[in-house]
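If I may wish for something, please sit down with the protein I am sending here and say whether tokens and residues agree:
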Amino acid sequence: MTATAPTLVTGATGFVGSAVARTLLARGHNLRLMVRAGSDRRNIADIPAELVEGDLSSPETFAQAVQGCRYVFHVAADYRLWVPDPAPMMKANVEGTRLLMLAAQAAGVERIVYCSSVAALGLIGDGSVADETTPVREHAVIGIYKRSKYRAEQEVLRLVREAGLPAVIVNPSTPVGPRDIKPTPTGQMILDCAAGRMPAYVDTGVNIVHVDDVAEGHALALERGVIGEKYILGGQNFLLRDLFAMVSEIAHVPPPKISLPQEVIWPVAVVSEWLSRAFGITPRVTREMLAMSRKKMFFSSDKAIRELGYSPRPAREAVADAIAWFQSNGMLK
């Protein structure tokens, strides 16, 4: 397509956001990227786009960001699995999303793609596969990040119902791949395993998808998605043991062989959280992480495959691309 009116992407400097921007650029979109002041912009350095400074915690920046846009892709979020104070994350992810949606609608934006997460969906957890229709209640959503994404998604759905917000929702599972500069919690896990720093694991499961497939799913949601509908953008379900075995094989390191029960790691998580609060460092394990790991996070992307034409590649390619990128960027020695 050729578009003269800009397409706004929030969170474009991040892992998923930069992939979405590249996919839209390849489709001919005229890009406007909302970036935080002082943010690391390596992921978008080679993308021709108009940059506008904005922040989910600063709603006064939204009107300028959305002005004149035909489409909005809201990908930005505060994505951390542990924070000492949950209030700023809730404000950014929930209230920031609500106000950005209202600003986009007031500016006459034709269609919005909101990047939610499988964290906002129901979870069966026993190894069965969940989908967009799996029941969910907030009290069952574990962790501040997941609760913030649940509340934000509910707010978008409410605006669709009550205010006619032209939004489609996508729910990525666990993206991995190139340009994971922070890295994300999952990227750090793969990086640690590939470096031989993963001596043990817990018995849980995740759904792994290539970040570029997630980006493609965003574009397909714009082109083919139904307003008010949700689409899981996932890949393959893996037990953590099997994922680490694959990572180790690709990286040519011995796989972790020890499966640790929750009760062994729980005291470590308590101490880790205390040290994090005392010294301002990010904990590698927390009690909420352990609570989340009690359920296998398996999901189906059948709806997106059927209705959007979504076609994720094998997860092995995602892991291989992530490891290759970490190596080429000096993060994996």
About this structure: The first helix runs from residue 15 to 26. Residues 58 and 88 are 11 Å apart (CA to CA). The two ends are 42 Å apart (CA to CA).
